[in-house]
Amino acid sequence: MVTRTQKPVPFSQKFESWLPRIVVSPLFALSLFFVYGFIGWTLYISFTKSGVMPNYTFEGLSQYERLWATPRWYVALGNMFVFSGLFIVISLTIGIFLAILLDQRVRIEGVIRTIYLYPMALSFIVTGTVWKWILNPGLGIQNFVRKAGFEDFSFDWLVNSDYAIYTVVIAAVWQSSGYAMALFLAGLRSVDDEILKAAAIDGASAFRTYFSVVLPIMRPVFLSTVIILAHLAIKSFDLVIALTGGGPGYATDMPATFMYAFAFQRSELGVAAASAVMMLTTVIAIVVPYLYSELRGKKR
Amino acid sequence: MSDIQLENVEKSFGATQVIKGINLSIEAGEFVVLVGPSGCGKSTLLNLIAGLETITDGDVFIGGKRVNDTPPRDRDIAMVFQSYALYPTKTVRNNITFGMVARNIPKADQDAAVQEISTLLQIERLLSRKPGQLSGGQRQRVAMGRALVRKPDVFLFDEPLSNLDAKLRIEMRTEIKKLHQRLGKTIVYVTHDQIEAMTLASRIAVMDNGHIRQFADPATIYEDPVDLFVAGFMGSPPMNMLPGKIRAHGDQYFVATGQADDEPLDFPLPPSLSKRVTAMDGRDVIMGLRPEAIFAAGTELPGAHRFVFERSVSVVEPTGPDTMILFHHVGLDVVARVRPEDAQPEGTLFQFETDMEKAKLFDAKTTLRI
Amino acid sequence: MNRRNLGGIVQQKGARHLAMRALLFLTLGVFCLYYLAPLIVMVATSLKSLEEIRTGSLISLPQDVTFDAWSKAWSSACVGVRCDGLKPFFWNSVAMVVPAVAISTILGALNGYALTKWQFRGANVIFALILFGAFIPFQVILLPMARTLGVLGLAGTIPGLVFVHIIYGLAFTTLFFRNFFIGVSDGIIQAAQVDGAGFFGIFFRIVLPMSLPAIVVTVIWQFTQIWNDFLFGIAFTVGDSNPVTVALNNVVNTSTGVKEYNVDMAAAIIAALPTLAVYVIAGAYFVRGLSAGAVKG
Question: Has the ipTM of the complex gone over 0.95?
Answer without folding.
Answer: no
